[in-house]
């Protein structure tokens, strides 16, 4: 099975990033790995969350931080200094089990293998986190549609804790 690799050469705003992933989910005929970043910074909220309960909209507006809803579940995520990936693959495939927990584990373990090639000793923390030295550096969320799996995930490169917890 051939894969398509998409590496965005420049950051997109939150709305474009989520629109691209949705379009790929709806229209792809082959497995895809997309790697991208965000500009400006953004807060994405899971599809079942309330913006007003999760996001300080006034702070975001004053600090030019986009707010967008993901089509995947999970909690609110602050996107700033990170690499984001999306994996889109048919539910029935040669690589990942269609079971939710097993697919999270398998996809995260692929990320862990990549991190090991960079000299980082990462571990998987169920249901959807990757840790280095006991600290979370990655979280992910999934959705299922059109008999496909879409998993979004982040790899934190640096973190502004004040901005993250205030936004």
Side by side, the strands of the main sheet go 1-2-6-10-9-8-7
Q: Structural class of the helices, strands and pairings? A: alpha+beta
Give the uncertain stretches in residue-range form: none
- What is the overall pLDDT average? 96
The rounded Rg comes to 15 Å
Defining key terms:
167 residues, single chain, 34% strand
What can you tell me about this protein's structure?
The structure is a single chain. The protein has 167 residues and is an alpha+beta fold. Helices cover 29% and strands 34% of the residues. The protein contains 5 helices and 10 strands, in the order βαββααβββαββββα. A 7-stranded mixed sheet has the order 1-2-6-10-9-8-7, with helices on both faces. The radius of gyration is 15 Å and the shape is globular. The model has no long low-confidence stretch (mean pLDDT 96).
Write the layout of secondary structure elements.
Blueprint: E1 4-7, H1 14-27, E2 32-36, E3 42-45, H2 51-54, H3 57-62, E4 66-69, E5 77-79, E6 82-90, H4 100-117, E7 122-125, E8 129-132, E9 135-145, E10 148-156, H5 161-166
Parallel strand pairs: 1-2, 3-4
Antiparallel strand pairs: 2-6, 3-5, 6-10, 7-8, 8-9, 9-10
How would you summarize what this structure contains?
The protein has 167 residues and is an alpha+beta fold.
């Amino acid at each position: 099975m051939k894969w398509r690799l998409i590496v965005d050469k420049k950051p997109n705003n939150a709305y474009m990033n989520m629109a691209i992933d949705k379009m790929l989910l709806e229209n792809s005929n082959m497995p895809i790995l997309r790697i991208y970043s965000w500009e400006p910074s953004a807060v994405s909220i899971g599809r079942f969350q309330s913006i007003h309960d999760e996001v300080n909209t006034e702070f975001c507006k004053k600090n030019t931080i986009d707010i967008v809803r993901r089509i995947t579940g999970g909690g609110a995520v602050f996107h700033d200094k990170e690499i984001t990936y999306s994996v889109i693959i048919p539910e029935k495939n040669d690589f990942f089990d269609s079971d939710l927990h097993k697919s999270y584990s398998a996809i995260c373990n692929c990320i862990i293998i990549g991190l090991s090639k960079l000299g980082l000793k990462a571990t998987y923390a169920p249901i959807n986190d990757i840790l280095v030295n006991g600290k979370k550096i990655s979280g992910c969320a999934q959705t299922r549609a059109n008999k496909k799996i879409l998993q979004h995930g982040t790899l934190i490169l640096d973190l502004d804790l004040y901005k993250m917890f205030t936004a």
